[in-house]
Design brief:
408 residues, alpha/beta, Rossmann fold, seven-stranded parallel sheet, six-stranded parallel sheet, 16 helices, 49% helix, globular
């Protein structure tokens, strides 16, 4: 199969969904051409990794200043800033020219940020089968962030964007041959945005997986019973809110009983606000790390106190794959088929989170039991190969349906 994969940021281990889909598709013998954008040395290194793995990569530079100009120009209109932030006319033209030569059986477009490329392609070649991977319902995420974010800028931006994203996502699910999301909750959220009298494309739930060759237990590293880890991109508003909640409300309750407990906030691009949390000698803010696994292997527990979010939290699956016990919020497991108390622990407020943390760090056998059950769950339900095979089935249905329609 000849697949064009349009993704508005360079896929890598952190941007795990496109990265693993692309590598799995290549490994299964399909020709995958990636059309993507970037702006720094790390992006160039990640592109080379994709090429070394067998993908064909078409890369365009998109400096941050240009993305900001794109966004500023869109402010007076109704387009979401998300849909213009990653727009590059040269990339759009190249995709359309290649598709005009019938080079692709199917085009896969990722995220709301990439959706404009899919719309542009459809406007030029209506017969080209296009799958839009929404990943999450951004409107659903923004609805939560606009009221619950602990970052004032995050609340301002999401409130500004929300009416725009609602309108755009409602139209987008009618504009392509197929849509994908990571959870049933996101599918229902998208369908609630459907304009009256319109009919949506099929929307399939395709969860995220875990690279099980990369994320795995390491029995050679001893766990530190006093080490608690929270991971994620620390410039992302939802992660900032979680970090502040963890430090401000949960950890003080833990320290009353375990004053030696240490919190590691691990992830790239921490804001000044997050860096400031490290002034406490019991908190380490690492910034960018080359490898998250040593922190997960050493930790007694991974804590994900989700205040708001959408889709599947990759940090939960990755920690579980390393046999690190996870404590998270009820809303974080709605997209999973886990058994609370067996595969991971669930807490609904600061007191419950502190109790679950203390329960685990004080009981090595329980720590090992829940960590092991979590690993088994991930291996059974979140293997990228099996999820990619489901994606290929969706591609085939879209291609067949498009071919049938063109003959009518």
């Amino acid at each position: 199969m000849r697949i064009a994969y349009i993704v508005p940021y360079v896929p890598n281990l952190i941007r795990t969904r496109p990265y693993n889909f692309i590598l799995q598709l290549v490994d299964l013998g399909h020709k995958v051409e990636v059309f993507t954008l970037g702006s720094n040395e790390q992006d160039h290194a990640d592109i080379q990794t994709l090429r070394n793995k067998g993908a064909i990569v078409h890369y365009f530079e998109l400096p941050v200043w240009r993305s900001l100009v794109n966004s500023a120009l869109a402010v007076p209109g109704w387009q979401p800033l998300q849909t213009v932030y990653s727009w590059h006319a040269g990339l759009a033209h190249q995709i359309a020219e290649r598709a005009a030569d019938k080079d692709f059986d199917v085009v896969h477009v990722e995220h709301l940020r990439g959706s404009r490329y899919g719309l542009y392609l459809k406007s030029r070649i209506a017969s080209q089968p296009v799958v839009w991977d929404s990943v999450d319902c951004i409107s659903h995420l923004f609805e939560q962030a606009s009221s619950q974010s602990r970052n004032w800028f995050g609340r301002f931006v999401t409130r500004f964007e929300l009416p725009r994203t609602r309108r755009a996502e409602g139209q987008l699910i009618c504009s392509f041959d197929q849509a994908l999301v990571t959870s049933a909750a996101d599918r229902e959220a998208l369908l609630r945005l459907l304009p009256a009298g319109k009919y949506p494309a099929p929307i399939s739930v395709l969860p995220n997986g875990v690279d099980l060759d990369y994320f795995h237990p390491n029995p050679d590293i001893e766990r530190d019973a006093g080490m608690i880890v929270f991971s994620g991109k620390m410039s992302y508003h939802a992660n900032i809110s979680m970090a502040k909640y963890l430090v401000g409300e949960i950890m003080p309750l833990v320290w009353r009983s375990r004053p030696d407990a240490k919190l590691f906030i691990v992830g790239k691009d921490p804001t000044t606000e997050v860096i400031g949390l490290g002034q406490n000698h019991l908190i380490t803010v690492t910034g960018t790390v080359s490898d998250i696994r040593p922190y997960l292997w050493r930790a007694a527990v991974s804590v994900v106190p989700l205040l708001y979010g959408a889709g599947i939290q990759n940090k939960i699956l990755e920690a579980m794959a390393t046999a690190t016990p996870v404590i998270t919020s009820p809303r974080a497991i709605t997209a999973l088929r886990i058994v609370p108390g067996k595969d991971l622990s669930v807490a609904d407020n600061a007191v419950e989170f502190s109790q679950q943390i203390l329960r685990l760090i004080d009981d090595f056998d329980l720590m090992k039991q829940i960590g092991g059950a979590g690993e088994v769950y991930v291996r059974k339900h979140h293997n990228w190969r099996s999820i990619t095979l489901q994606l290929l089935d969706i591609y085939m249905k879209v291609i067949t349906s498009s071919a049938t329609a063109s003959r009518l």
